[in-house]
Structures are given as structure tokens and as C-alpha cells.
Records
---
Amino acid sequence: MSLLEKSELIKKEFETDHLAAIDAAKPEAVETLRLAYLGRKGKLTALMEDLRNASKEDRPAAGKAVNLVRHHIEAAIDELKSMARSWELAAIVNRAPIDITLPVTEDRSVGSIHPVSLMRQQLIKIFRTLGFTVVDGPEIDFDFFNFSALNIPDNHPARDMQDTFYIDGAEKMLLRTQTSNIQIHTMMNEKPPLRVIAPGRVFRCDSDMTHTPMFHQIEGFVVDENITFAHMKGTIDTFLKAIFGSTLKTRLRPSFFPFVEPGAEFDVECGVCKGKGCRTCKDTGWIEIGGCGMIHPNVFEAVGYDSSRYSGFAFGFGIDRIAMNRFALPDLRQLFEGDYEFLGNFPIHSN
Ligand SMILES: [Zn+2]
């Protein structure tokens, strides 16, 4: 058989095999076809070998014919390869769908909500029912928003009360030590009436059983005409009872914070001993929760509010501290160690 006849024959055989591969519609059939013709022991490879051994006078004509067949086969197989990709996709799409009504047989562990998130969600819910809106603010901020605008000028001793992380190389920038910076941002951007809570992370160089370098606070404040100390007392009493139970007493104690006047701290009756005194409350019968007060006129001045027209109150407390009391945790650091077993004690859903 001459080379011309051989190449004709291979071309014919390929037509048949090509159609069969299309009928099969499987990627494996394409690969089998490729190997059968273009592989090391393939029919076309053998034909090319014959061409190399052909006589000088036969070679031009035969070479032309063999090359035509080769181009034809290579193009056809390339086309099949791209068809194979769509066959694969079709196979995936047509696979039997998953029956989601079947019961789960294996024991899958599911995550739970972190106690701090749980507490935070609960607090936000309570304050929303009291008409507060939630706002956010920067964790890295200028000294002005964290201190100066809050009536804590340079060299004020209150700056030493909060061991501050300053940012290296940045002029007067720090990690906020309190969420009160949000109070300043909000008041500078909006006009009263305001009823806002601002939950967030704060940072102080401090670490022991009841202190961590990062912790969560909620700042709340109300600004309007004729806001009084009684409004503040009512708000604090309402949310403490919502968290700890309506039968527990709450109280305010006089205290000092530079950004309020007058200032107070607020406590809730110890839920363990009901005020009689126990280890949890260090025999005082009370659990300290946070600080509050009437917003200082200097703060209003810093944000451009008329302090003769507006008054307001602010309060702040640690979300982690509340979680610690609410869930009876002995060590605050437990909240941030990521211990799987510890975190598994908390519910999967918040209510
Ligand atoms: Zn107690």
C-alpha cells in the first residue's frame, strides 16, 4: 500500500472513530482517540515514521497528503477537547441532586455565639427598645477625640488612669482607651436630639484576672433640651433590670470623670447573695458596672453645642464585665483565650 493510500485509509478510519467519540460524549473517549492516532504508538505517528523512510521521489507528494491528514486529525481532536469540557460540566449539573430532607447521620459539631457577642447583641436589643440607635467609630484615633474633647487636656491626671497605647511615629494618635471618642465624632457630625449607643473594642496596657489589654465597652449618651439626671437614672435602672432581672436593686454612687458633671458610678445588687454579701461581690452586696454623669459643658463647647440650650447624659461600661457577671465567669481572660470547650458552653443562637 502506498503512503497516499495509507493516509487516505487512516483519514477514513478517523472519521468513524471521531463520530464514535462524539456519540460517547465522554472525556475519556477523546483521550483514547488521541492516543490511537497521535500517541507514541498511534496510527498517524506510524505514518509519519513511514514518511521518513520513503524514497526521495515519493516524499513530496506523500508528505503533502500525510500533513493534510495530520492537520485534519489534530484540529478535530482539539475541537473534541473543548467539547469534553462542556460534557464534564453537563455531567456535574445533571448529577442527582442532594436530598436535603434526609436525616443527618454523623455527629457534626456546630459553633456557638461568643459570650461577648451574645451580651453585646442582648444589650443592643434592650437599648433599641429604649429608642437608641447604634453607631460605630474608629479604634485608632487622634488624641483630641479620645482625650482633649472629653475635657481631659494634656497633663491631666486622668490620662494616667488609662494606660494608653500610643502609635509610634504618628503625631498624637492612639488606640482608643474608651468608646467615648464615638460620642465626640457623633456630636460633631450631627445635631441634637441624639440618643445613641456605641459598642466597640477599647485598649489599655493592663492585664490580670479582671483586666485584659483589649476589652469591649458600650458608650451611651442622650443629648436634647431639658435632659435631666432623672432621665439618666431611669435609663440605667431600666437596662440593668433588663439584663440582671427586675427584682434586683440598682444604685448610683457619686464619682468623678472629667467629661461629666456631676458624675456617678452605677451598681446592681449581687444576684448570688441578693445583697447579703458573698465572695462574688466581695461582701459588699453590690456589683460595680460602670460610670455615668451629665455631659460636661466643656465637652459641648468642644463639639460646638450651645450648653445653655442643650443638656445630656452619658454612661459607659464593659460588655465583658457584664458577661463575666451574667455567666458567672471567674477570670475575664477566659473570654479571649479561644478555648473550644469553654466557648461550647454558650448557646448557638442568641434569643
Ligand atoms: Zn454577693
---
Amino acid sequence: MPEKKAVVTGGAGFIGSHVSEALQREGYHVTVIDNLSSGSESNVPHGAELVVCDVRSEQARELIAGGGFDVVDHHAAQMDVRVSVADPMLDADINLMGLLNLLEAAREGDVKKFIFASSGGVVYGESDDLPHNETAPKLPVSPYGVSKLGSEYYLAMYSMLYGIKVVSLRYANVYGPRQSPHGEAGVVAIFGSRIKKGENLTVFGDGEQTRDYVFVKDVARANAAATRFDAECTSIDKVAFNIGTGTETSVVQLANAMLEASGITVAIENAPARAGELLRSSVDNARAKKLLDWEPSVELVGGLRETYEWIAGVAG
Ligand SMILES: NC(=O)c1ccc[n+]([C@@H]2O[C@H](COP(=O)([O-])OP(=O)(O)OC[C@H]3O[C@@H](n4cnc5c(N)ncnc54)[C@H](O)[C@@H]3O)[C@@H](O)[C@H]2O)c1
């Protein structure tokens, strides 16, 4: 049988590199498209081919249009909320124009499945009715959130117009080896690199803000499961899956769990609350359990231990 072929955009980054490995295990030959703006060649798994280019480029479009790919799994993005607020046009250029370039290429190249890394942390409106399920009201409060939700609508539209199968995976807060401590979503990586350097951990406000932390290898398995999901797209929520644990962990709890996982003690300090920070967040994964046969398998402290071992080994 001819080998199945997948493109993973952002495959030199944190999540995309684990996704590339998971798709290889599914029997795909993986081609990574990445401009290396935050990713690194060393993250690309052995056996995968790296093409260094921008998702907005003609090169990316020609590659996908002419490559005979079965799956495009899209992880390259501008993913810093603060950058999106400071420069919403840059965010839209990378996240929306980049997506459209890939979708047009997928249509030209008769790609069968398009998987998209969305975000359960930014597409839903803030409410106390947690965890959010997929049909919860959407109300992004940043340009980044709008570009993620807008992307889901573009996917649905391409599915309805051209028959391409689409899946949006709405990730909770992803953590694990290879996460950069720079940028918005990297609190675990930030805590880990500070612990390694013997520096205190800073918690903003009272530290009772909650997030739903999901281990990157579980997220990668969800992408593998998504390659096998083939529902008709009748709404964005019908082809969307929350990928998280459904458990809220406060920043203080996370800091303590990270200290436990590392076996090192540093102090936890408080700093003034940051304006505009979401107070609580978690996503209901029942739909993914039922329809993707997926559930998270890594407990927080175990995942943090594996993450800290990686940070202690490589991060500066
Ligand atoms: N980390 C999280 O907790 C989280 C949560 C929800 C959603 N996501 C989404 O998951 C995806 C991957 O995030 P990550 O945490 O692995 O980030 P990352 O920065 O490690 O990975 C992004 C990769 O995309 C590449 N890239 C960026 N812009 C590009 C462009 N214009 N053309 C080509 N390549 C480009 C970068 O070099 C990098 O390798 C993003 O779409 C992000 O929005 C992440």
C-alpha cells in the first residue's frame, strides 16, 4: 500500500513536533512546513522532511497543492495574545491569510482532511459555567481569539463548499517538553526554567486564577485520532473537540505541583494582578472521549516531572 502523507505546519515548534511524531506512528510520511520564527530544526522528528517557508508563501501553497497529501495538520500561528492586541493586522495576516493560503492549496491539491489547532482558552466567553462544552457561547476578547474562531468558520465553509473533511481541536493549556518559556502560554516552562536557575516563582494577583493543563503527548494523540474522524460538517461545533482534562488548577497549585515534580524548593512570590487576565478556564472533554475515543492519560504531576526533566536537561 502507498504510504499516507501528511503536512504538519509549525512542526518545528512545541506542539507540532509532537504531532509530527504521533502522525508518523499512525503510518504517515510527514512533511513539516515551518519558518523557524519560534521553532527549531532540532525539534523536527527523524524521518520527517522540513521545508523552511512561511504558511503565507507561494512555496507553501505549491507544495501542498502538488504534493498528493492526505492530511494537512495546521499548527503554525501567531499565538501571543499581547502581540495580537498590539498588532491585530499582523495576527490576522499570519493566522487568517496564512490559513486561507493553505486551504486554497488543500482544495487545489485534493487534500482529504484538514486539522486545525484552535484554542479552548480563547474562543469561549468568560462564564462560571465550567467546564465549557463545545456549544458554549463564543466570545473571543482578543484579536488572537477572533482569528482562531474565524479560522474555524473558514474550515467549515471549505468543508461545505468543497467536501474537504475538517476538524478543529480546541486545546486547553498545553504543557510538556520542548515548550519555550517565552510567550503567553508557557507558564509551566517559565516556572521550570526559574526553578532550574534557583529563582523564585512569581504568581500574579492572588494566584487563584485557574487553567486546564493538558500534556502535549496527549494532545498529539488527539491529532492522530482526528485523522480518523470523518463527520459531515454542519456547524463549527460539530467538527470541534475540546482537548483538555476538565480539571481546573490554580496558579498556586501549579507552582506547588511543579516544585513537587522537580524536587527543588524555591519561594513563591506574589506580584500585582495583570489587567485583562481570564479568571477561570477549563474545557469539557466528553465529546472527544465519545467520538474520538480519546482521553488524557497523563496526570499533572507525572507530566510536570517529565517536563522538568527535559528543562533540566536542555533549557538554559
Ligand atoms: N501552547 C498552548 O497551550 C496552545 C493552546 C491553544 C492553541 N495552541 C495553538 O497550537 C499551535 C502551536 O502552538 P505551540 O505552543 O506549539 O507554539 P510554537 O511557537 O512552539 O509553534 C508554532 C510554530 O509555528 C511556526 N510558525 C509561526 N509562524 C509561522 C509562519 N508564518 N509560517 C510558518 N511557520 C510559522 C514557528 O516557527 C513554530 O515552530 C498554535 O496554532 C497555537 O495557537 C497552543
